[in-house]
Amino acid sequence: MRFTLNGRSVTYEASGARRLLDVLREDLGATGTKEGCGEGECGACSVLINGEVVDSCLVAVGQVEGCEVVTVEGLAEGTELSALQQAFINYGAAQCGICTPGMLLAAHVLLQRPDRLSADDVREGLAGNLCRCTGYTKIIEAVLSCRT
Amino acid sequence: MQDVTYLRPETIQDAVQLYRTTPGCRPLAGGTDLMVMLHAGTLRPQPRAVLDVWSLRELKGVRRVGDALEIGAAESYTGIIRSADANRYVPALVAAARTIGAAQIQNRGTLGGNLANASPAGDTLPVLLAYDAVVVTDRRTIRIDNFFLGYRKTALQADELITAVRVPLDRDVVFRKVGTRAAQAISKIVMAVCRAPARVAVGSVAEVPMRAGGAERALAEGDVAGAVGAVAADIRPIDDVRSTADYRRAVTQNVLRELLDAFTRE
């Protein structure tokens, strides 16, 4: 089977029933995606499939055939961090870092919305991403700073 | 999971055929329940194959069919939330969909999955009961009242696939879920109520999502206090990791009172 990972076409041969999370990390070396709970509760393994945020621990890899998958490795533009990634640094929005890749992807989707985000929109949009370090305030500030 | 065969049919006909002829096969839609259990190895018997119905076009979409709204079994909760028809005709189902997990789960979770998994805590299931929904399968229709037979046991035959759910257009249903927090919470109790015809449907308070018969009889006679009294005896809550039987009984009564008050204020 074939899918697109961060703009690059990849092929995959083994069982389609494996978790996308495991194929990303173990077969494709995309270890930016983290495993937290493995049950769809924490959002650490969030990736984008055709632009929608999903937990990659809940996706069978066969289900992404022909899809565009984006992981945290796909957010930077070359060697330049994206504005959102830089904002996470500037605002101290990452501490231990396990939730950060998933947070960035969920926030990236939120920032594509046509309407101007409120702090409540960000809280709701990131409700599927748990952070046990920051208390969320700095994450929300970082996302709000990227509104255009 | 390496030794589980992954099957991806292109059409509903192929899906039905594969499901019938593949031993130990489980349908896979958004994976929000099944992938967890598959990875943890908690399914008995262990599936030997998964049948991926997520991409079947016939199982997607929200459309009007006569005097019902038909929702594809593999349509995501996000698809339901974004559907203008769903917001107009079945707002309580949209309200329930919004409380399920968060964006990641709403993008993958489906009505077909919620029904087939048949958890007593399934958030859409009391709503479907309150609407008198009809489950459409590859071979027949099943009234939702006849669908849940026991703990995670449904009326589906071993090789029967859910294809859609039909919900009548003309019902006024209200919904409320009580969990530990607003997002990512599994219900302590979840309720949907229709004033006429009288329907009081509750989840997480018995081995199945259930209708509260005593409360419905009182409500049909316009006896709100009687309904609130009766619902405590209708339900069969237990103590478990999420809550206690006492709490569930008290909160079920409070939520029913609150939902019935909301009708009175309309």
Protein traits:
heterodimer; A: 148 residues; alpha+beta; Ubiquitin-like (UB roll); DNA polymerase, domain 1; B: 266 residues; Uridine Diphospho-n-acetylenolpyruvylglucosamine Reductase, domain 2; Uridine Diphospho-n-acetylenolpyruvylglucosamine Reductase, domain 3; 3 domains; 4-stranded antiparallel sheet; 35% helix; globular
Commentary on this structure:
Chain A folds into two domains: 73 residues, Roll (Ubiquitin-like (UB roll)), CATH 3.10.20; 63 residues, DNA polymerase, domain 1 (Orthogonal Bundle), CATH 1.10.150.120. Chain A is built from five helices and five strands. In chain A, strand 3 and strand 4 form a beta hairpin. With 148 residues, chain A is of the alpha+beta class. Helices cover 28% and strands 13% of the residues of chain A. In chain A, strands 2-1-5-3-4 form a five-stranded mixed sheet, covered by helices on one side. With 266 residues, chain B is α+β, with helices and mostly antiparallel strands. Chain B has three domains: 48 residues, 2-Layer Sandwich (Uridine Diphospho-n-acetylenolpyruvylglucosamine Reductase, domain 2), CATH 3.30.43.10; 111 residues, Uridine Diphospho-n-acetylenolpyruvylglucosamine Reductase, domain 3 (2-Layer Sandwich); 93 residues, 2-Layer Sandwich (Enolase-like, domain 1). Helix content of chain B is 35%, strand content 22%. In chain B, the strands form four sheets. A five-stranded antiparallel sheet of chain B has the order 4-5-10-6-7. Chain B has a four-stranded antiparallel sheet with strand order 11-12-13-14, sandwiched between helices. Chain B has a three-stranded parallel sheet with strand order 1-3-2, covered by helices on one side. The longest helix of chain B has 21 residues. Chain B is globular and about 55 Å long. Chain B starts with a strand and ends with a helix. The relative contact order of chain B is 0.11. Chains A and B meet through strand 4 of A and helix 2 and helix 6 of B.
